[in-house]
Each structure stands twice: as structure tokens, then as C-alpha cells.
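Quick one, C-alpha cells below. Sequence please?
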């Protein structure tokens, strides 16, 4: 993992939720998807986040609670911090 990737991860962290909910613009989706192909950390996080959002929907919530969104963004920060510590 390079520093460049880490900065990209940070830029992406706030957009993953919108991406999964289908609220990201087409160009936003494309840049995010190309990053997910190259970055195992974000790809793994995207899978986890998608599961969490789908679980929320299964419980009947029409929108994702703000707490889930905050938790998701916090989780990305932790993953990135962990990746940096390993280097
Ligand atoms: Zn990434």
C-alpha cells in the first residue's frame, strides 16, 4: 500500500455510503469502482458496509440512520490507520 493509495482511501471513505445507496454520480461511481479494483482494503470495507446497509434495510428502515453513516466513516478511518501502522 502506498501513501497515494491511502490518500485516495481517505477521499473515498465519505463517498462509499452514497455509492452503495446508489446516490453517487456516474463519474463518481467510475472513479470509486476503479479504486475498489486496485485496493483490497477499500474492497473489503465496501463488502462489510454493504452488508451493514442491507441489514438496516431488512429491518425496515427507509433510510440509513445517521449513526450507521458515522460508524461507517469512523470504521474507514480505523482501517486506514491500521494499514499505516503496518508500514
Ligand atoms: Zn482504498
Amino acid at each position: 500500500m502506498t501513501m497515494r493509495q491511502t490518500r485516495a482511501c481517505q477521499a473515498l471513505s465519505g463517498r462509499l455510503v452514497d455509492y452503495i445507496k446508489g446516490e453517487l454520480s456516474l463519474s463518481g461511481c467510475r472513479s470509486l469502482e476503479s479504486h475498489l479494483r486496485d485496493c483490497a482494503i477499500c474492497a473489503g470495507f465496501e463488502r462489510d458496509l454493504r452488508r451493514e446497509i442491507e441489514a438496516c434495510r431488512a429491518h425496515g428502515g427507509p433510510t440509513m440512520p445517521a449513526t450507521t453513516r458515522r460508524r461507517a466513516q469512523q470504521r474507514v478511518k480505523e482501517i486506514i490507520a491500521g494499514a499505516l501502522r503496518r508500514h
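The chain has a mean pLDDT of 79. The chain has five helices and no strands.
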